[in-house]
Amino acid sequence: MKVRLRFAPSPTGNIHIGNVRAALFNYVYAQKEKGQLILRLEDTDLERSSDESADGIIEDLKWLGIQFDEGPHVGGDYGPYRQMERLDLYKKYADQLLAEGKAEKDFSHQENKGEIDESHYAVRFKAGGRKVKFKELVFGEVEKEVEDFIIMKSNGVPTYHLGVVVDDHLMEISHVIRGQDHLSNTAKHIILAEALGFDPPIYAHFSLTHGLSKRDQSKSIQALREKGYLPEAIINIAMLLGWAPPDEKEKFNIFDKLSDFDPKDFTRVNANFDEEKFNWLAGQYLREADLDRLLALSLPYIEATGFLKEKPIDENALKQIIDTVRGNMKCLSEIGDHIAYFFQDLDYTNEELQTLLKKDDSQKVFKCFIDKLDANESLTQDSFKAILKEIQKETGVKGKNLYMPIRMSLTGEAHGPEMFMVAPILGKETCLRRLEKAIKL
Ligand code: GLU
Hints:
Elements lengths: L3 E4 L12 H14 L2 E4 L11 H14 L22 H13 L3 E4 L15 E4 L4 E7 L3 E7 L2 E4 L7 H11 L4 E5 L3 H13 L6 E5 L2 E2 L10 H7 L3 H10 L30 E2 L2 H14 L2 H15 L1 H4 L4 H11 L14 H4 L7 H8 L1 H16 L5 H15 L4 H12 L7 H21 L2
Parallel strand pairs: 1-2, 8-9, 10-11
Antiparallel strand pairs: 3-4, 4-7, 5-6
This protein binds glutamic acid.
The site of glutamic acid (GLU) has 7 residues, from loops.
């Protein structure tokens, strides 16, 4: 059996972590089965659909790495892939149902007119309250009563039901993976398909999500991309909404374990979007990402801070800075908050900081540190670690009383990345300058 799947968004807005799953689950299943993935734009809501939205969806999916074999942007043998370009097809099938008496004309939109215009009608499918039984991959046997429903509006535009059934048939879709909000439509789709003489596809419905409101634009793919989240973190959290790998490990690359994925394992209960888990995952992916890639991705954010104009530094030093601070971030737009002290001198105006720096122990540490730096040719991670040990031995100051003043005098902050990584990037000269300043407070 040929596996052909589709993502069929209505281009009426942008996609977020929740509704990207319809594309993702279909893509993953297509990858697993070596099938095809089709993009179909269900643009029949004339008032709300826009090209801008369609372009945005295509761009977001491309950025996430979800690729289509067919679609309005790549072509294919089953097009056109925009429903508004397929109106003649829907009309043909609506006419067929009318001719066979399985559907009837509906003039109710003309109710307030004196004379009925016979050429202007909607089409209603006669389901007649039939009980429809069907098999679905997640829920098993489902039974639903179906009342008559409109399949084509009086302007010749199909309703969602006719569009989806005709297109899934003509595009030879084998499996429909979609959200549970459509579970109640499936009975309609199945009897409509049967009335038209089509074999219905196999259906699987994934859960809805809590904690992701459509109006909350901060979880749109576009917003997350602009904030500098990595796409693999978004794919990972989206996969977890309604599906879990057999080993239940939360961080995973689904493309490394395709054989684990089976739509019948979708959870039936609603999935909860856990912001904390997402941020944790996002941080994990930043920690393991290739540094050249991170440099390219973070450069726009670094440039926006203006630091590079104050103190131009080479790519290698920038990469070291990124490597040093990435452990404290979840997305790259945060980088500006973590790197100022690599570029700007410190003024130690903060009172708390001053009190700490002025302590006897701190001053002892600074004095000793300056001597050691003077005696060392350059500052490396190893020499920094060695110097710290010597300071501890010679001054008797240790633990927090040793590390805090050093961190504070060199970065102006109480928390941050490992100092053995920070200090060599600052370099001997800058460290000396800051220590001299701290000693004169
Ligand atoms: N256009 C529908 C939606 O975005 C497609 C649903 C389906 O997959 O059938 O919800």
